[in-house]
Amino acid sequence: MPDHAGLATNATVALRLAEAFRRHGVTLTFGQSLPSAFHLASPHVGIDQKVYRQENAGGTMADGYARISRKVGVVTAQNGPAATLLVPPLAEALKASIPIVALVQEVTRDATDRNAFQELDHVGMFAPVAKWVRRIDRADRLDDYVDMAFTAATSGRPGPAVLLAPADLLTEAAAPLSSLLRPRALSLGRVPLDRVLADPAAIAAAADALAAARYPLVVAGGGVHLSDAAAELATLQETAHLPVGTTVMGKGAADETHPLTLGVIGYVMGQGSRTQALRPMVDRADVVLLVGNRTNQNGTDSWKLFQPGTRFIHLDMDPMEVGRNYEAMRLVGDAKLTLAALAEALASRDLSARQAARAGIEAEIAEGIAAWRRTIAGLATRDAPLPRPERLMAELDSLLRPEDIVVADASYSSIWIANYLTAKRAGQRFLTPRGIAGLGWGLPMAIGARIAAEEAGSGARVVCLCGDGGFAHSWAELETLRRLELPVTTIVLNNGILGYQKHAEEVKFGEHTKAVHFTAVDHAAIARACGVEGVRVERSAEIRGALAAALDAKHPVLIDMVTDPDAKPPISVFAGHYPEPF
């Protein structure tokens, strides 16, 4: 095999490809066997292969890795079925702006368009779910195309890029550079690739609007995390005395122990939510600063969250997102740079009115959160015959540290986390697949997050919360946890139903389909069969001990927690349709 410098005469295109990936900071890939030539060459340049079990899990692992590392997540796949199963995780990455490069092997060039085994139109298939899709056909253009893929993934609004490589090209002898090209040396594998400051005139106008507003409000989305702008948001919050709420994906962008932080707002503000009593603060907001926020359906409670007279300032890297759903003063640029500039601009304005209003705002937020704690106190402490998720979340919240990472599956799991766990510092990470919200993505996303945390030398513990419906999509990755010896605590809320589907059908149609009920499953036994410690919890009094032991363990642990099937998180649209348990 060629040496690390790649100077041997038997160097292949696969080795050159691995070298190019390494130049962009890639230290590991999520992949199975194919493209074998690439995976055999990669260790020679210091790239490790993290092998997943299910072909639809690799892309989600790369997603979780990218969210925590803020590097490009790399996933590989073979042509045909493995490639098709990359479509859902890439769709999530596209909607949620996660930088991923997918390297997909194709059939050999001489077999193209001849109905070769597992041949598909990958360009057409990936086009709707990726920012950029190209095929490398010439060995001497390899660095060109790799650089384009990483630039697409990390520049502007981040997202997935797909690089297609014919199998026979990978085993060719490496080619010298074309006479038209120059050697490439830059590393482009971190996000954001380019930090662009919004127009200074627009920043000044936004500062004027916020300083003059009577009831300003900041709503931070996931773009704050992508830009690593939590510190700048905290400075703006403190300097200008601004209340801050977040979307579900933006949770953790603001410190939820700060007296000016509301918590998560949007479609999860029903009774039992942290922010239900703070709805009047949202209703009367006259100027709302949206930061890294897609103003999507969930984040705006189906676009009913704000009043008709509310004015908006919208800061986002993507000019097409700014003003998409709410006409707004435009701040097109990087959140980190622009928030810092906005805070500086506000510091030179007269903020006496904001400062005078601060004590009242803090008191209103404090009373709203106190009212929430009083509302949920019974459920969060009682020993119910069937354990309640509220009790679990209260116990987990008391055990989590500010640096810990919490990953949720889609559906109810994301909402339990959004409302019942506390972001104990600005920038704490809560990962939720809210791009297209696919079931089964919690565990593989947690695996990617755990690998990123370990690579960074972080002391963060990783907790994954799944429903039993979603977890059934990713059981196989328990073996991955065991094989990679990843100390992830996986909690399965085992209520025997597809909760969100059942309850939403009842609200909408007055009845539910038969698809929502499962037979009983012992997930702890499944975990033990895979060599993972499995603990079954059937009584509320057992919850804290099981959680504490799992969090302290140096190995993966699964807690199969039997829960009340009637438990519902505080989704706004459910209000009035079910008896409240409080």
From TrEMBL:
<dbReference type="Pfam" id="PF02775">
    <property type="entry name" value="TPP_enzyme_C"/>
</dbReference>
<dbReference type="InterPro" id="IPR012000">
    <property type="entry name" value="Thiamin_PyroP_enz_cen_dom"/>
</dbReference>
<comment type="similarity">
    <text>Belongs to the TPP enzyme family.</text>
</comment>
<dbReference type="InterPro" id="IPR045229">
    <property type="entry name" value="TPP_enz"/>
</dbReference>
<feature type="domain" description="Thiamine pyrophosphate enzyme TPP-binding">
    <location>
        <begin position="410"/>
        <end position="561"/>
    </location>
</feature>
<protein>
    <submittedName>
        <fullName>Acetolactate synthase catalytic subunit</fullName>
    </submittedName>
</protein>
<dbReference type="InterPro" id="IPR011766">
    <property type="entry name" value="TPP_enzyme_TPP-bd"/>
</dbReference>
<dbReference type="InterPro" id="IPR029061">
    <property type="entry name" value="THDP-binding"/>
</dbReference>
<dbReference type="Pfam" id="PF00205">
    <property type="entry name" value="TPP_enzyme_M"/>
</dbReference>
<dbReference type="InterPro" id="IPR029035">
    <property type="entry name" value="DHS-like_NAD/FAD-binding_dom"/>
</dbReference>
<keyword id="KW-0786">Thiamine pyrophosphate</keyword>
<dbReference type="Pfam" id="PF02776">
    <property type="entry name" value="TPP_enzyme_N"/>
</dbReference>
<dbReference type="InterPro" id="IPR012001">
    <property type="entry name" value="Thiamin_PyroP_enz_TPP-bd_dom"/>
</dbReference>
<feature type="domain" description="Thiamine pyrophosphate enzyme N-terminal TPP-binding">
    <location>
        <begin position="13"/>
        <end position="125"/>
    </location>
</feature>
<feature type="domain" description="Thiamine pyrophosphate enzyme central">
    <location>
        <begin position="203"/>
        <end position="342"/>
    </location>
</feature>
